[in-house]
# Entry
Amino acid sequence: MNGMSLIVKKVTQLMAGIIFLYGVYIMLHGHLTPGGGFAGGTIVAGSFILLIVANGIRVFGLHREEQLSSAAESIAILVFLLLATAGMLMGAMWFFRNYLPHGTPGNIASAGVIPIYNLVVGTEVAAALLTIFLGFVIFKAED
Amino acid sequence: MMEALLPLFVVIPLGFAFITAVAGRYIPQFHRIAIPLVFLFLAGLSAWMMANIRENILLYMVGGWEPVNGIPIGIHLSADGLSVLLLVIINTLAFFSAFYSYAYIEQYTSGQYFYALFCLMVAGMNGVAVTGDIFNLYVFLEIAAIASYALVAFGTKKEELEASFKYQVLGGLGSLFILFGIGVLYWATGTLNMADMHKLLGSAPASPGIVFAGVLLLAGFGIKSAMVPFHSWLPDAHSSAPSPISAMLSGVLIKAIGIYCLFRFFFNLFAVSVQFAYGITTLGVISMLVGGFLAINQWDTKRLLAYSSISQMGYVVMSTGIGMILLCRGGDMKIAALAIFGGVYHLVNHAFFKGLLFLNAGALEYRLQTRDLLKMGGLAHAMPVTSATSLVASMAISGIPPFNGFFSKLIIIIAAVRAGFYGLAILAVIVSIITLAYYLKFQRYAFYGKPSESGLPEKDVPFSMKGTMILLALCCLLLSVLVFPSLRNLFLMPAVHALMNMTL
Amino acid sequence: MVLFVMCFLLFLVGLYGVLTRRNLIKIIIALSIMEYSLNLFFILIGYVKGGEIPILKKAGTVPAVVVDPLPQAMILTAIVIGLATTALLLAIAIRLYRKYKTFDVSGINALKG
# Structure
């Protein structure tokens, strides 16, 4: 399936980077502003999907991409579980406890382990949405 | 110390699900060996907890958030006798199904995704059993349900996809009703914690909002546990799924996310009310009758077993409903305890013998590539292990001594008679005779009689399938000792007291 | 109060769609409508008259009246669950179309009895 016209391709190539950065901003500031992992992850996935929709589909490249995003999703969840249980082993004694230093409210490096959770959940959601989209596209293109 | 083990039941299957999804692509046989061992460990852990819990309630505050001014913040995991009993059933049956599917999934190409989804489903069910917070219960229920939707459609044949779609639409409706009910409950009480909500709701008479939430929750959990008239997804889904998944679905899923949640909400959260008790008992009686009658003229083995599941779940719900009616009316506590004990004991038994029956049907399908009873015949000598274990399971479910089904059905009928519901007791006996009838039909057409023209298979099923079936048949025989008082007080009475004392 | 009734009406519209429509995609859309109505219902539960957003703007200053943040956290989770349900339904619907060549429910009836 061919992509869209040249204007659309050029504009999306310019905008995709900005959208990606905006998604990462929402992910990082999850403990200070509304948003957090899931919303930021959706926006990051949106930037990738925009690129694929605008530039057309060549199925071979997308197979490899789908394997990568599927692996990234599983690894992100395993990192999340590892972080959640590492606190239990390192002396915090409860599963899921917030064990890094809390810092002052209002800074980015505050609220303990929550910004790291937001980043990991964001990558997981972005990878999952990308895998779902690529699954649909590859199934349709193999027709 | 035992509290710290409670998150393990959710974290270990969840971790292994994603490890399998990644590692299964590179290490070929990893998942087939590792996953049964994981579930064996969890089954042993839950059995150890069962032996040590007595009448205590374990409480674990996730994240260490202590209650502020007596109001709980944060999610609590709590386990009493009923939760730990359910954990034992889930993990034991998961071990047997995972061991059985060692040989069964050779026919599928992407086996690692099968095991990943299987682990996710068990993680969700374990989460439902240990949680103490109603929205957390909804999240784990959805995890288990979505994993089961994907597992039913795993083979991607025509019938499997259609069955999965019907299952998904009805299951999605049930989940939305449950979410609506949870929303109304939060609006009325302002808290999500089960123990806190019991303090707020347990003593006051029911306001219209609470009754509305109760009706919604009854509809939602009725859809999930396949009570009539919400049962139409069950025959298609349980007959089209791969056989170890059918055993898990019929053996634990409708119990863990349907009946267990129903009991938790209506015994332990709301104040017991007479209208809901009569409603639950009526649903149980209708399910018992309709499931039994519809199973008689089925010629597809797994469809027959699926309708039989509806009927047996009707027994459990009817018996527990009788106990609830007696609790409301202030009747004799001993008879109420007997009725609830009958229901819980039948729940445990049904998991084991229905799991064994579905695994037998899977063994027949593995060798003969068909599920039609008219195309089978005379398999008693060609497949001796399958035939013998199937006979054991059929005798157990029909209620023939000395197997476990006899004792649990006897207790249900005795409790119904002593409570004064003579009509229900007669109906229970009639449905038991009908159950015997269609299991005799199953045995005669599949294993005895003349061989069909497609011939007999040359040997029985592979070792992993045979071993699982023999172990389950032994369990069916051994579980009948749970009726003796010392073992009964150790294993089943904590669950009954958890439901009756209305403590969490 | 009117808003709660309208949310419930939206829920009933979705229920009507699931029960009566015959095209698979319309059933999926109706299920999504039901789920969005529940999201709106939860947000309406959490509203407190005159409340501010539940975020600390400066360290140590808590606003006097805040809206309830717990339903907002519940809604985030419910939206993710709805996404997973819809994605799986659509994947199965596409494969069903490939096998049965129709989206009509009455044409998809290989399993009977």
Residues 59-92 of chain A form the longest helix (34 residues). The mean pLDDT of chain A is 84. Residues 56 and 69 of chain A are 19 Å apart (CA to CA). The radius of gyration of chain A is 18 Å.
